[in-house]
Amino acid sequence: MQHRTKGKAVTSPAPTQIALINGSFEQPAVSGNALLPDASQLQNPQHVPGWLTTATDHLIEIWHDGFNGVPSADGAQFAELNAYQVSTLYQDLPTTPGTKLYWRLYHRGRLGQDTMALDIGAPGTVVQQRQFTDSNTAWGFYTGTYTVPPGQATTRFAFRSVSAAGGDPTVGNFLDGIFFGTAPSVTLTKYAIPDGPLEVGDVITYRIAAKNRGGGNAEALRLTDAIPAGTTYLPGSLRIVNGPNTGVKTDQSGDDQAYFDPAGNQVVFSLGNGATSTQGGSLPNTDTLPDGTTVEYRVTIDEASAGGQVANTATATYENRLGPTPETLTATSNEADTQVLPAADLSVTKSADTTTVTVGQTVTYRITVRNAGPNTATGVTVTDPLPAGLTFVSATPSAGSYNPVTGQWSVGTLAVGASATLTLRAKATTTGPVTNTATAHANEIDLRPGNNTDTVTVCVKPAPICRPCPSPSGSGGPCEPCPPPAIDPA
Known about the structure:
The protein is built from no helices and 39 strands. The protein has about 500 residues and is mostly beta strands. The strands form 9 sheets. It has a 6-stranded antiparallel beta sheet, with no helix packed on it.
């Protein structure tokens, strides 16, 4: 069961992990064969981890692959149940009543047909589960299950010698590839980096940690993660951060252990030891691989996510192959959430009622600000200070207020698709070109700031001059009519 927190992953505890130690007798390493002390003899650095024996000398016999012509069944080493004495080889494991445990093993005779028994139960009251008889020509492979009965907090898993060809108590019953424990249990923990809140255009790095908190290996492990809605996959960002097959991966299917699937808009990773471009590998439990394996990819936040959140979960499929037939299992990560800040797209359009005036005349500007979204724009202002050569006459905003001292029009809030207009009047006072610029701002990030500004230039010419009429005495030239005076609407 998973829970979610803002941008982080929280996974509830997995079932109790139960697995044998050193099930294939790989430790300590030997070159031919050796009689070594069992796990009770901790003072001896050459003791065999995990395994105990009922032999009074506490010795376990380990063989290397190929010694005396006998190949190992799993790994490079195996054990002989009969060392110097007819005995029982066992491990005691903490268990939870009701837990289903799986077992599997390889058995082989040494000189001929050897027989051993598998005993499981509480220490002192074990119950024989089965006997195995195999010749010295091939390894026999066996599987089974055991359910821990009520009240049994410790379970003994033991191999007891029954008989050996030749009658020599120091010879017989090879063992290898032993497993006794819980099924694999993969947990996925997903992280979104950074936590946020983020903006449109920012990049989110997703990391998914896969850990096997069960007993057996998780086989054929494949992780799939759909690219979350409102984001776009960032090409070339696939990577296995730790665990088997670490490194950068290509986007192309068939190249390596990961790819981006454009048709399904998802990323796919094949994970674990032995993973290929087409098949998942084997992920050991956290006793063997404490950190599991972690993958990573990146997405860019799209405009559609503005003012909302990006949510995403990953899934994995794997197989439990401890039983006679593979069992397909599924793991789902926590939901990684990233808050995305609102965004807007303000645009400004500015015009003048005329592009040429004379000194003393009034020019009328109209400034329109519009919000194209995708979110409501708040705290909208338009800065439109009058330049030198113009004197403020009046301002009429359709929304908000205009301050002639600062030249700032405080619009307020603009919903998606809404607009507001300011009619601004000013008197021309000096000749020459007069350029006037309006620029819009809002609290939200602007997706297209290039259209936030507009400029208008008005040409101011000198006021017209007329020659005076002749005096009554008749001096002076002819009278040249003056143009009618300009009427100032202010």
